[in-house]
Q: What sequence folds into this?
C-alpha cells in the first residue's frame, strides 16, 4: 500500500507518526548508534564520552559494513536469522541470577522450577536471543570476530573488557532473570507464594520469545538505540511516555506489587 494512495489526512498522520518514531531512536545506520561498529561509526560515545569500538579502515583489516558484525547472508548459524557470531567464549560458566526467585526454587515451589525450565537440560542457561546478545556482552568474545573466524581489526578495543566500561559486560547474577519460560502455568506456580504480584505481559512491544521465554530482547531492541531519547539503551517500549519513564510501564507489565520500576543500579533493583 502506497502512502500516496491514502487520503491526505491519513497520509499526514502516518508521516507524522513515522517522524515521531524515528525521533525516539537512533537507527543502526547512524554513526552514533552504539551497535554500529563499522569504520564510519563515531569514535567517541556521545552519551558516555568514552571511546567507541569501531573497525579500522578496510585497507588495515577493518570494514565499512555495519550488519556483518552480527549477520551474514551465507553460511549463517541456525541459532537465529543469518546469525554471524560465535557462541560466547564463556558459555557454560555464566552466573545464574543471584537474588530470591520463585522460578529457581528459592521459595520451595518445585513446579515453578520445572515448568519455567530455568537453567535446565531442555533450556540450558542462557539460551535463545539472550545467548546471542552475550556473544558480545560476555566481556570476553572480541567484537570484531565473526562466525567464520574472520577477525576485523578494531580501533579503541579488541574486546569488550578493553573498553573499561562495566555496562558492556553483563553480570547475570545481578541482572533481571532471563531465559526462562513465563506462561500461564508458571504464573500459577508463582502465585502460590506471591499471590497478586505478577501477571503475564500485555504490551505488544514487550514480547516473550517464540517459546514463551523472557529474554534480553523482551525489553531491548538491538537495532534501535534509544539511550539519548529515553535514557535507556535499545529500549523496545518508547510510547506512550509516562510520568516516571517508559521503563516503569515495562516493569509494571509483569510486576503488580509496586516494587517494580526502580531503575537504580542497572537491572538489579527488580
A:
Amino acid at each position: 500500500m502506497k502512502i500516496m494512495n491514502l487520503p491526505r489526512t491519513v497520509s499526514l498522520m502516518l508521516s507524522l507518526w513515522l517522524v515521531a518514531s524515528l525521533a525516539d531512536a537512533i537507527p543502526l545506520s547512524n554513526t552514533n548508534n552504539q551497535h554500529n561498529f563499522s569504520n564510519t561509526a563515531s569514535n567517541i560515545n556521545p552519551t558516555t564520552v568514552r571511546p567507541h569500538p569501531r573497525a579500522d579502515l578496510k585497507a588495515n583489516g577493518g570494514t565499512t559494513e555495519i550488519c556483518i558484525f552480527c549477520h551474514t547472508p551465507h553460511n549463517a548459524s541456525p541459532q537465529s536469522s543469518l546469525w554471524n557470531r560465535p557462541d560466547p567464549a564463556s558459555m557454560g560458566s555464566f552466573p545464574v541470577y543471584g537474588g530470591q526467585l520463585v522460578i529457581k526454587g528459592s521459595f520451595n515451589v518445585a513446579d515453578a522450577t520445572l515448568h519455567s525450565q530455568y537453567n535446565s537440560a531442555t533450556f540450558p542457561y542462557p539460551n535463545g536471543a539472550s545467548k546471542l546478545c552475550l556473544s558480545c556482552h560476555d566481556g570476553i568474545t572480541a567484537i570484531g570476530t565473526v562466525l567464520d573466524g574472520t577477525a576485523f581489526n578494531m580501533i579503541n578495543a579488541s574486546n569488550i573488557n578493553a573498553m573499561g566500561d562495566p555496562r558492556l559486560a553483563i553480570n547475570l547474577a545481578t541482572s533481571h532473570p532471563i531465559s526462562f519460560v513465563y506462561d500461564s502455568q508458571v504464573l500459577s506456580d508463582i502465585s502460590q507464594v506471591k499471590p497478586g504480584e505478577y501477571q503475564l505481559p500485555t504490551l505488544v512491544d514487550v514480547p516473550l520469545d517464540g517459546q514463551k521465554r523472557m529474554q534480553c530482547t523482551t525489553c531491548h531492541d538491538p537495532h534501535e538505540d534509544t539511550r539519548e531519547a529515553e535514557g535507556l539503551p535499545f529500549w523496545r517500549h518508547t510510547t506512550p511516555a509516562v510520568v516516571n519513564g517508559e521503563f516503569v510501564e515495562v516493569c509494571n507489565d509483569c510486576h503488580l506489587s509496586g516494587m517494580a520500576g526502580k531503575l537504580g543500579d542497572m537491572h538489579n533493583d527488580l
